[in-house]
Design goal:
This protein has helices at residues 28-36, 86-98, 108-115, 121-132, 136-146, 149-173, 178-183, 185-213, 227-235, 278-292, 309-313, 355-366, 380-403, 406-424, 430-437; strands at residues 6-9, 16-24, 45-51, 57-66, 77-84, 102-103, 215-221, 253-259, 262-268, 296-302, 320-326, 343-346. It is of the alpha/beta class and 444 residues long. The chain folds into three domains: 6-118, Probable tRNA modification gtpase trme, domain 1 (Gyrase A, domain 2, 2-Layer Sandwich), CATH 3.30.1360; 130-211 and 379-425, Up-down Bundle (Four Helix Bundle (Hemerythrin (Met), subunit A)), CATH 1.20.120; 216-366, 3-Layer(aba) Sandwich (Rossmann fold), CATH 3.40.50.300. A six-stranded mixed β-sheet has the order 3-4-5-2-1-6, with helices on one face. The chain has a six-stranded mixed β-sheet with strand order 8-9-7-10-11-12, sandwiched between helices. It starts with 5 loop residues before the first strand and ends in a 7-residue tail after the last helix. The structure holds guanosine-5'-triphosphate (GTP) and magnesium ion. Magnesium ion is lined by residues 227-228, 240, 248-249.
Length: 444
């Protein structure tokens, strides 16, 4: 339990109906008494005058006191709900600080909740993800993680891991019978079930991570084919300048759209061509640089044209490309060739025809199925950990079914458990915690 008391304004700056000051730590009760002049009943809302250091009334509002451990942080907590005005809230905060509290660091309330076992690390991260979510689907998924949906999946795997470890360790202890034990189909069955659970959680977490981070799609092509028009058509806004002059777009232009919960970062680029114009040259250089960091490339052509071999050759081979044939309102699209290995979409940025197809296509190439039931939010570091668990699970299975090397299988499973614990933070390092909570907003 922390020995100092932290405080922050928990609501955004600016004017609002209410603003909240939060206090957590051993001084919370004393602060409550000095600001309200009363002994507050825990967990009850009290409507009263809120006083400053000199006894003057700063505002009328609601004070709620939570005594430990029944609070967000697990410590004594005071919440002051005043009117949403910066001067009022600053005075309240000053008063709290004068009583001996200090300003909270970003994420410190949630960090304390984690350290006091009110939530595990995956749930704590979900708090930040919920606050940052930019679609209804993402918010729902973050709430699921916060409610422990992801952590429960991790717990199931941990139980299966422990189960298999116990079985192998027992076999090693009775080493005369070791061979029989390990060759037993019982153990192989357990490992198969374990690996199946890992695969299933990994694929759900991968989807959850996509919902959080999305994909980056870069639009490229020759000048005037309609790249900027395509961007505008996807965003439904007039974000990019469109003219019939080739070389209109010079700079990179970034927009975000959300397709059924999948955030797609779209980047419009300067048309690629040989040019002596210095500004355009720089635009083309930036376009090429941006292509390298794409998850997916939309290579745009006019519908009357075929695939541009020169353009294709200039693209990185390890990034998937979809050919977008634009201006179908001017040119008839050819009869689709079902055997084509190239993914191609015919559309008109002008009429919007074919844009929905492109949207579903982007979901598909991202590997995003967006089934809202049971979706939870996950982060890159969770995926990394689960992938390591998966490798170790497969390796353990090979040791058991192949060489019968029980010690090696046991070691794999022990390391797999360590990786799994990183997700929920059982044995998280201080560096990891600093990294995670440092990205929160103040007051959370
Ligand atoms: N008929 C028709 N015209 C289109 C369509 N899409 C774009 N255009 C026109 O094509 C011209 C070029 O469009 P832009 O979107 O500026 O093309 P761009 O690829 O961004 O061009 P640069 O920025 O110069 O590389 C404009 O006159 C658009 O109105 C379409 O689907 N149908
Ligand atoms: Mg353009």
């Amino acid at each position: 339990m922390a020995s100092d008391t932290i405080a922050a304004v928990a609501t955004p700056r600016g004017q609002g109906a209410i603003g909240v000051v939060k206090v957590s730590g051993p001084l919370a009760q004393q602060v409550a008494k000095s600001i309200t002049g009363q002994d507050l009943q825990p967990r009850q809302a009290h409507y009263l005058d809120l006083h400053g250091q000199d006894g003057d009334t700063i505002d009328q509002g609601i004070a709620i006191y939570f005594n430990r451990p029944d609070s967000y942080t697990g410590e004594d907590v005071l919440e002051l709900q005043a009117h949403g005005n910066g001067f009022v809230l600053d005075q309240l905060l000053d008063t709290v600080i004068a009583e001996g509290a200090r300003l909270a660091r970003p994420g410190e309330f949630t960090e304390r909740a984690f350290l006091n076992n009110k939530m595990d690390l995956a749930q704590a991260e979900a708090v930040a993800d919920l606050i940052e979510s930019n679609s209804r689907e993402a918010a729902r998924a973050a709430v699921e993680s916060l409610r422990g949906e992801f952590s429960r999946g991790v717990a199931v795997i941990r139980d299966q891991l422990i189960d298999a470890r116990v079985y192998i360790e027992a076999a090693l202890d009775f080493s005369e019978e070791e061979i029989d034990f390990l060759a037993d189909s019982e153990l192989a069955d357990r490992l198969t079930a374990l690996n199946k659970s890992i695969d299933s959680l990994l694929s759900r977490a991968t989807e959850g991570r996509l919902m959080r981070d999305g994909i980056t799609v870069v639009i490229v092509g020759a000048p005037n084919v309609g790249k900027s028009s395509l961007l505008n058509s996807l965003t439904g806004e007039d974000s990019a300048i469109v003219t019939d002059v080739p070389g209109t777009t010079r700079d990179l232009l970034r927009e975000i759209i959300v397709i059924d919960g999948l955030p797609v970062h779209i980047v419009d680029t300067a048309g690629l061509r040989e040019t002596h114009d210095k500004v355009e040259q720089e635009g083309i250089r930036r376009a090429r640089q941006q292509i390298e960091s794409a998850d997916h490339i939309l290579a745009v052509r006019e519908a009357g044209q075929g695939i541009d071999k020169d353009l294709l050759q200039g693209l990185p081979i390890d990034i998937a490309v979809t050919w977008v044939f634009n201006k179908t309102d001017l040119h008839e699209p050819p009869i689709a060739n079902p055997d084509s290995l190239v993914s191609e979409i015919y559309l008109s940025a002008k009429t919007g025809h074919g844009i929905d197809q492109l949207r579903s296509h982007l979901k598909q190439v991202a590997g995003f199925t967006s089934t809202p039931e049971g979706a939870f939010m996950a982060r890159r570091r969770h995926i990394d950990a689960l992938q390591a668990v998966r490798q170790l699970g497969l390796s353990a299975n090979e040791h058991v079914t192949g060489t019968g090397a029980g010690e090696l299988a046991a070691e794999d499973l022990r390391m797999a458990q360590d990786q799994l614990n990183l997700i929920t933070g059982e044995f998280g390092s201080d560096d990891l915690l600093g990294e995670i909570f440092g990205r929160f907003c103040i007051g959370k």
